From TrEMBL:
Ca(2+) 1 binds at residues 69, 72, 74, 76, 78, 90. Residues 27-332 form the Plant heme peroxidase family profile domain. It comes from Aquilegia coerulea (Rocky mountain columbine). Its cofactor is Ca(2+); heme b. Heme b binds at residue 195. GO terms for molecular function: heme binding; lactoperoxidase activity; metal ion binding. This is Peroxidase. GO terms for cellular component: extracellular region. Substrate binds at residue 165. The keyword Ribonucleoprotein does not apply.
C-alpha cells in the first residue's frame, strides 16, 4: 500500500472517530446489543406496547422515568434503586414521591430480558429504549437509541431533590437546571414538549390557579376562562383533592403532538414551568421557537429527537464503569 492511500485511510479513520466523539463521546452505539442480545429492542417494544394498551398514561410515565434518571448522576438507572443500607432511594425525593410511575413495568420487562439474555441489557438502556417506544406509540417520532449504558452502584436522594426542576420554577431557574446537565435553552423548550402527554397532580400547579402573583397574571395567563374554571373545579382550593390528576395537555392528552405549544400560546400550559417559557422570555427567542413548533410539527419532532439524544447521553457510565444490574431495584451482590 502506498503512503498516499495509507494516510487517506488514516484520515478517514480519524474523521470517523471525531464524528463519533462529537455525537456521543464515542461510547454509546446504536445496535449495541446486535450480537449479545439481538431481540432486546423487540422485547422492550412489545412489552411497552402491552403496558400502554392496558394503561395509556404509562407511555408518559415511562418517558418521565428516563428524564428523572438522566438528571440525577446521569442516565444510569439510579432512579430505579430502592432504599438500601448503603443509600437512600431517589424515589423518596420531592419531585418523585407519589408521582413517578412505571417501576413495575420496568421490572417486568427486565425480567423478560434476563430470561432471554442474562445480565446483558442494562436498566439504564432499558429506560432509554422504553422512553423512545412510549413516544412513538403515542404518535410521536421514532429514532435510533444509542446504547451501552451501564447501571450505577448507588442512588442520590440529595441529587434528586437538587437537580430535578420544580413545577413552580422561574424561567431563569429552569434554564440553569438544564445548563447544569449540558442542555441549552433550545433543549429546554423542545423537551418541555413532553408535556403533550401525561398528567399532573393538582398539588403541582394549584398554587398557580389560586394565587395573584404577577407571574401568573402576565398577559399570557387569562383568569376566568373556561380553562381556569375547569382547573378550579377539579382542584378545589381546600386541598382535599390535591392528588387528583389533570392532563398536562387538556386538548389532546393521548397524543404526542405539538398541541403543547398551541396551549402555551393561548396561556393554557398547566404548570408554571410551562407558562414561564413564554411569559418570562425577555429576548423573544423562546417565543419564536414556540411559535415555530406550534406551526410545524415535524420541526418540533426533529428538535425533540435531537434533544432526547443529548439528554440520553448525560454522564453515562460505559465500559468497565458501573455494572449491569440483574434486578433494576438493587445493585448486584455477585
Ligand atoms: C422543564 C422542567 C420540567 C418540570 C418543572 C417538570 C415538571 C413536571 C411535573 C410537576 C409533572 C407532574 C407530576 C405530578 O404532579 O405527579 C410532570 C409530568 C410529566 N413530565 Fe415533566 N417537567 C419538566 C420537564 C420534563 C421533561 C424534560 C420531560 C421528558 C423528557 C418531562 C416529561 C413529563 C411527562 C411525560 C409527564 C407526565 C407523567 C405521567 O403522566 O406519569 N418533563 N412534569
Ligand atoms: C415552590 O413551591 C415550594 C413548595 O410549595 C416552595 O417551598 C417554594 O418556595 C416555591 N418556589 C417558588 C420559586 O415559588
Amino acid at each position: 500500500m502506498n503512503m498516499g492511500k495509507m494516510s487517506l485511510i488514516l484520515l478517514v479513520f480519524i474523521c470517523n472517530r471525531i464524528e463519533a466523539l462529537n455525537f456521543n463521546d464515542g461510547n454509546l452505539l446504536p445496535h449495541y446489543y446486535k450480537h449479545s442480545c439481538p431481540h432486546a429492542e423487540k422485547i422492550v417494544r412489545r412489552n411497552v406496547e402491552i403496558a400502554v394498551l392496558k394503561d395509556p398514561r404509562m407511555a408518559a410515565s415511562l418517558l418521565r422515568l428516563h428524564f428523572h434518571d438522566c438528571f440525577v448522576m446521569g442516565c444510569d438507572a439510579s432512579v430505579l434503586l430502592d432504599n438500601s443500607v448503603a443509600f437512600l432511594s431517589e424515589k423518596q425525593a420531592v419531585p418523585n414521591l407519589n408521582s413517578l410511575r412505571g417501576f413495575e413495568v420496568i421490572d417486568r420487562i427486565k425480567a423478560i430480558l434476563e430470561e432471554a439474555c442474562p445480565k446483558i441489557v442494562s436498566c439504564a438502556d432499558l429506560l432509554a429504549i422504553a422512553a423512545r417506544d412510549a413516544v412513538t406509540l403515542r404518535g410521536g417520532p421514532s429514532w435510533k437509541v444509542y446504547l451501552g449504558r451501564k447501571d450505577s452502584l448507588k442512588a442520590s436522594l440529595i441529587g434528586a431533590n437538587q437537580f430535578l426542576p420544580a413545577p413552580n420554577s422561574s424561567l431563569e431557574t429552569l434554564i440553569s437546571n438544564f445548563a447544569v446537565q449540558g442542555l441549552d435553552i433550545g433543549d429546554l423548550v423542545a423537551l418541555s414538549g413532553s408535556h403533550t402527554i401525561g398528567k399532573s397532580r393538582c398539588t403541582s400547579f394549584k398554587e398557580r390557579i389560586y394565587s395573584r402573583s404577577i407571574d401568573y397574571e402576565g398577559h399570557h395567563y387569562k383568569r376566568n376562562t373556561v380553562f381556569h374554571r375547569i382547573l378550579r373545579t377539579i382542584c378545589p382550593k381546600s386541598g382535599r383533592r390535591d392528588d387528583a390528576v389533570v392532563p398536562l395537555d387538556l386538548t389532546t392528552s393521548a397524543r404526542f403532538d405539538n398541541r403543547y405549544y398551541h396551549n402555551l400560546i393561548q396561556g393554557k400550559g398547566l404548570l408554571t414551568s410551562d407558562n414561564v417559557l413564554m411569559s418570562q422570555d425577555v429576548e423573544g427567542k423562546i417565543v419564536k421557537q414556540v411559535w415555530a413548533y406550534a406551526s410545524d410539527e415535524q420541526l418540533f419532532f426533529r428538535s425533540f429527537v435531537e434533544s432526547m439524544l443529548k439528554m440520553g447521553n448525560i454522564n453515562v457510565l460505559t465500559g468497565g464503569e458501573g455494572e449491569i444490574r440483574h434486578n433494576c431495584r438493587v445493585v448486584n451482590t455477585w
